Amino acid sequence: MRYLPKSDAERVAMLREIGASSIDELFAVIPEEYRFTRDLSIPRQFGESEIVDHFKAASAQSANGYASFLGAGAYRHYRPVVIDSLVQRGEFLTSYTPYQAEITQGTLQAIFEFQTMICELTGMDIANASMYDGSTGAAEAVMMAVRITGRDGVLVAKTVHPEYREVMHTYAQHQGHEASEVAYYPEGHAQAGRVDLEALEQAVTEKTACVLVQSPNFFGIAEDIPAIADIAHKKGALLIVSIAEAVSLGIMRPPVEADIVSIEAQSFGVALSYGGPYCGVLAAKEKYLRQMPGRLVGETKDTEGRRGFVLTLSTREQHIRREKATSNICTNQALVALMATIFLTVYGKQGMRELALQNLAKAKYAADTIGSKGKLLFANTPRFHEFVLQSDETAEALNARLLDKKIIGGLSLAKWYPELGNATLWCATELTTREQIDAAAAAIAG
């Protein structure tokens, strides 16, 4: 949106139009003691050209020109330019949410198409649109499982994104749910880095509402979803699969054994932007439809047989009685979900497969090359585009050396996995070049 300052004459004209002679008269309904009467302590106003210069200078302070190997739930992928061209059309950009469903057919159809593609990717029957992000999606999925089963035990794999686990614990702490974590196979085991199935089997009981796992997990490793589902279902617990890197679905088998799938769809055309926005989504078996939080759009026909779209289910506290609501999440992410819809439409089924294969190939080259300069953990377990590197020096010291060469290295794992020593999580996507990988390996070698 362009910066359009208002002149004094325009302010006078606007006040006259609404029947007020001054700003003070406009706010006269507010008691005088509550009015802010002095100027704000902020810099003077800028002209448009000054504003552009200001932000250009600020942007020059960022990491432009740096090679980045960060992932861990926030991924750099190419965004086709058509995405911004379409989402900035006024009918999408200026409409907040389809409260008046019948007159927002374009927005409703976009949400319907988004839900349909998510179902095709995950192998689930239904999908909503949407949650705040992957972490709230996973937490809402756990709450959904508790309501469905009537149980309050929750088992979470330690290989789930640590911040997703924190959000889930925040949801659960005042609701009386008992959350326990399940370990992963240690280095040296044939399934190193995956959920410890023996430990999981011992932990699941008749009180367990659900088992929450992530695949690819936080180490980038594909979990054995069929085996985990068997263990959970034998005791009547639901299986929730969280997917932080949605591009993996281009080549990975969808988790059809799951009861609920939680996705972070940021990789589908949503730019990384200082922590947001993101795009969470839940998909599930149809029999759990009534416990799905968020909103669902359905397809129907009007009285003349014409195709139309309606807000079929919306179990939010804004729409139904508070005590009957499944969630208090109220902000609709329709515009962000539209970015993902356009991305998936542009790439198509074959394009998604090729994109995922490119990511896989880049990560393999990076793991082989960079991994040769340290110790590659969980080296023989199948993974997508992230890997764990263990080095002799601390992550802070290693990354400081890399920054001097304009390379942003892997994420330190010491905070969440101290048992892994000086370990860092690295990621390579289709945007990572061979030259960047070679340069990182050379920099690590010193």
UniProtKB/TrEMBL annotation:
It is an enzyme of class 1 (oxidoreductase). Residues 1-439 form the Glycine cleavage system P-protein N-terminal domain. GO terms for biological process: glycine decarboxylation via glycine cleavage system; nucleoside metabolic process. Pfam families: GDC-P. PANTHER family: GLYCINE CLEAVAGE SYSTEM P-PROTEIN, GLYCINE DEHYDROGENASE (DECARBOXYLATING). SUPFAM superfamilies: PLP-dependent transferases. The gene is gcvPA. Its EC number is 1.4.4.2. InterPro entries: GcvPA (IPR023010), GDC-P_N (IPR049315), GDC_P (IPR020581), PyrdxlP-dep_Trfase (IPR015424), PyrdxlP-dep_Trfase_major (IPR015421), PyrdxlP-dep_Trfase_small (IPR015422). Belongs to the GcvP family. N-terminal subunit subfamily. One of its GO terms (molecular function) is glycine dehydrogenase (decarboxylating) activity. This is Probable glycine dehydrogenase (decarboxylating) subunit 1. It catalyses: N(6)-[(R)-lipoyl]-L-lysyl-[glycine-cleavage complex H protein] + glycine + H(+) = N(6)-[(R)-S(8)-aminomethyldihydrolipoyl]-L-lysyl-[glycine-cleavage complex H protein] + CO2. Keywords: Oxidoreductase. The glycine cleavage system catalyzes the degradation of glycine. The P protein binds the alpha-amino group of glycine through its pyridoxal phosphate cofactor; CO(2) is released and the remaining methylamine moiety is then transferred to the lipoamide cofactor of the H protein. NCBIfam families: PRK00451.1. The glycine cleavage system is composed of four proteins: P, T, L and H. In this organism, the P 'protein' is a heterodimer of two subunits.
